[in-house]
Fold this sequence. Notes:
Blueprint: H1 12-20, H2 52-62, H3 70-90, H4 97-114, H5 119-134, H6 141-157, H7 159-176, H8 179-195, E1 205-207, E2 213-215, E3 223-229, H9 234-250, E4 255-261, H10 266-276, E5 281-284, H11 292-295, E6 303-307, E7 313-315, H12 320-331
Helix pairs in contact: 1-4, 2-3, 3-4, 4-5, 4-6, 5-6, 5-7, 6-7, 7-8, 9-12
Amino acid sequence: MTRYRTLIMSCLMAALMAAQAHSQDAGKPAKAEVDASKLKVSSLQVPAEGSSQELMDFIRTAQKVQPTTRKEYLELNRKVKAAADKVVAQEKDKTSQVYKDALQFSMHTGLTLMGEMKPAEATKAYQPYADYFNNLKQWTNSDLQLAMQVPQVCEQVDRQLAKKAYGEVARALLQSGHPQLVEIATMFKGSQQRLDLIGNVLDLKGTKYDGTAFDLASLRGKVVLVDFWATWCGPCIREHANIKKNYEKFHDKGFEVVGISIDEDREALDGFLKQHHIPWITVHEKGGRHPALQKYGIQGIPTMFLVDQEGKVISLEARGEMLTQLLEKTLGK
Length: 333
């Protein structure tokens, strides 16, 4: 089983550095290093009439800039994307490495910007990605990274757009016929199903830590937090403090927690539970392979569903202060 890890979105600099590795100009003398400490986002100007080489040089220079605010980070993305789009538009040889690198720059930076858009604008910005994936004949690692990120960014913006993205990217992955890509496509189909859970009954069964059978339906009448987590997941462990606080406050009012551990190492789970005295239900399958991971397309942890007394999902993001607010709303203060 591919180990599920805490989801960390790749930042702009990582994407730029990955593409840069393929875009060095062989045989040309090295240029003097730019003093990164003197570069500012506001001082960067995209060449108005630059050649493809000049535009790519601009992009490499932009890599050296360290944004100090979110506003600067987004502005840097806009400028890099503008330069990359110019290369894509003017490069006649669509098989050249320069064209391919520029296209990757454009798509990765565009994805960052899409995450800041309103649904209607993001829907329009998403379409080139769908077209790109549909026309792919051979998938690269960069393509796969992009395919993993696009629906996730859409999910941040609009649930309906995310459902569309998961479905369309899944179809493109299936067309490849590659076993690993087909596996990811299956997960994306599950993600579509997850996004439809709000207002619907959550079907969840498994094996409790003590080896007995578990069925979420047995907890009807209670408000239940379903927490997908692992002992090696830092954010999961930090969130446990918040879960405990709410468990102590609301348990007597009808609040229950079901922690679904995806730990592959049973001994690590044993040690953690004994050390931390977790009072709620823990579900664990051999190797951490709970069927819900694929069924609901869970790509990162912690993932937390909150289920009401009728067994219907009322939130897919019941974390932090939002968990307290939802419990106060359903169970009272």
